[in-house]
Write a structure and sequence with these properties.
single chain; about 80 residues; mainly alpha; extended; EamA/RhaT family transporter; transmembrane; transmembrane helix; EmrE-like
């Protein structure tokens, strides 16, 4: 796309390629797990847990990586 045209193209090294593949595998497994949970569980409970991932992600980002959210991100 545009960013590749502006910044140039670079191949991933082995470690980064492994990370990208792992993100794809774990993301797919998470999506499959959520789909099965919606199909077999109480939809109200599953949806509450699904929306709570936003809170947990923000909290873990702060605790592990020291990320601080802006007011715009909180809205």
């Amino acid at each position: 796309g545009l960013m590749t045209a502006l910044l140039g193209f670079s191949l991933l090294d082995g470690a980064m390629l492994l990370c990208v593949c792992a993100i794809g595998v774990f993301g797919s497994l998470g999506q499959i797990a959520m789909t099965r949970a919606y199909g077999g569980g109480n939809a109200v409970i599953v949806s509450i847990l699904s929306y709570s991932t936003i809170i947990f992600s923000t909290l873990l980002g702060y605790l592990i990586f020291g990320e601080q959210q802006s007011y715009i991100a909180a809205a």
